[in-house]
Design brief:
With 144 residues, the chain is an alpha+beta fold. The protein folds into two domains: 29 residues, no CATH class; 94 residues, Orthogonal Bundle (Arc Repressor Mutant, subunit A). It has six helices and five strands; from the N terminus they run E-E-H-H-E-H-H-E-E-H-H. Helix 2 packs across helix 5. The chain is elongated and about 60 Å long. The N and C termini lie far apart (42 Å).
Length: 144
């Protein structure tokens, strides 16, 4: 059984280090004024939502992937992008709709991905959280 120190001098018996980190981060978020009920986005999801905002709120897969690669400076395969988009759709951060088929022989419809109001709020809260953490982190606080 681990004995892990928790902030404010409390000791919690029997929790793992992952739980300790989660408790520490929760208290940090509360201390910096973050609404802990609003979910924080994972980095890839944050980049996808940021890309949609930059692309005027909606995009097809190929231009979205190009913007994600540009922002992250890392390649992302289409399968990973579409899986992450499906997660964002299930959470209500993104919607999608099929476009009319292209007006060429054999033209097919494309899927248009659109950020929702809920997605914009989640992205905004995540970006605000980054700023609050940066201001509270001594090495960064000196730079401002």
């Amino acid at each position: 059984m681990d004995i892990v120190p928790v902030s404010r001098g409390k000791i919690v018996h029997g929790i793992g280090h992952g739980t300790f980190i989660a408790l520490y981060m929760f208290e940090l978020f509360v201390d910096i004024g973050m609404d802990v009920r609003m979910p924080v986005l994972a980095v890839r999801k944050e980049i996808i939502l940021s890309s949609l905002v930059i692309l005027k709120g909606s995009s097809h897969g190929a231009p979205l992937r190009k913007k994600v690669v540009e922002l992250s400076k890392k390649e992302i395969v289409y399968g990973t992008l579409y899986n992450l988009l499906e997660v964002l759709i299930r959470k209500g951060y993104v919607t999608c709709r099929k476009t009319d088929p292209l007006p060429v022989q054999g033209g097919r419809s494309k899927t248009l991905y659109i950020i929702t109001g809920k997605g914009k709020r989640a992205l905004q809260e995540t970006l605000f959280m980054h700023e609050r953490i940066k201001k509270c982190t001594p090495v960064f606080a000196l730079e401002t």
